[in-house]
Amino acid sequence: MTVGTQAVKAQDVRDYWTPARVARALANEKSDDDAFARKAGAAVSAAKASGTTGATLGLRAERGQVLAADRRQERAAAPAAFDVPEMPVAQKVPFPQNAPAIVVGKILFTEPDGSDHGCSGASIAADGGNTVWTAGHCVHPGDGTGAESFWKDITFIPGFKENAGSPDGYDAPWGKWTASTIVAPEEWTQDGDPEDADMAAFNVTVPAGYTSLSDSVGALGYKFGYGSDWSDVIDSGFPGDGYHRTDMDGYTQFYCTGNAEDAADFNPLDNRLKVDCDMGHGASGGPIATTDAQIVGANSHIETEDDGTRKNDDLFSSDHADNAVAVINRINELN
Prior knowledge:
The protein has helices at residues 10-16, 19-29, 33-36, 46-49, 186-189, 213-217, 322-334; strands at residues 2-5, 61-63, 87-92, 104-110, 116-123, 131-134, 152-158, 161-162, 170-171, 177-184, 200-205, 221-224, 230-237, 254-262, 273-276, 287-290, 294-301, 314-317. By secondary structure, it is α+β, with helices and mostly antiparallel strands. The chain has one domain: Thrombin, subunit H. It has a six-stranded antiparallel β-barrel with strand order 4-5-6-11-10-7. It has a six-stranded antiparallel beta barrel with strand order 13-14-15-18-17-16. A hairpin with a 3-residue loop joins strand 16 (287-290) and strand 17 (294-301). The chain is globular and about 50 Å long. It starts with a strand and ends with a helix. Mean pLDDT is 91; it is low at 38-44.
């Protein structure tokens, strides 16, 4: 695992995100092809093709969702699973600033060249109650540069929504949670492997007036290492664009529903998840979760034609198996 820290004072990071910088970050999402379309056309990474990766360990980890403190009296037991329709054309989340939608949030970050960018992520059940799950490329370039190259000014904003009447230009009704410690697989930070390693978790600093992230907005559970085929999943995020879409701006939470399936059934080296969902840039890192509110994947990449245009409405996640288990275990050790 690669572990990094965001040493800047939390308030300085919050102050950094002026309305102009947030708008610039969301505009830049649409040009983030190096991250979102990284190796999307390749079935397996170069490391796998050369046989340099190790054998799968078959690790598993599972945890149930955590309800926000003000909802815990509603239901102590795990939610009953339910069927969802096939909905590949993403729809706006009806009540994005209410539970359960607020478990998903906008992630903002700054790259070394000073450019601002955005992703998506979700509060995840972890020791301490202050952890966000996202894609690896939402925290690190995946270029072999190690722990010193995690993005800067990483901030998670649940309930994020544009509001021209707000001093910030957007709503942050549940606070701005800045990253403190970040964990990503070495297969991502060293090799940029999108099949097995485009995932990450980071702990956040609690803003004044709050007790913990999970107390405030709740947290999705997780089910890692249980395969790539899942019936009835919900895929959420804040896309800045989409496949044949003109109504996505990065400020609005959308979701798709349907099934997740093994992206390459006949290739034992490629166990990515594939969901039919037309969300695009900016939705990276958003959770793919079961109706039991457990994360089984995170939006990673799309397929592109030779000219760089999107090929179809398929949206892919890295296989959430050994690496996902290792990330969540390491983040728990750090809490």
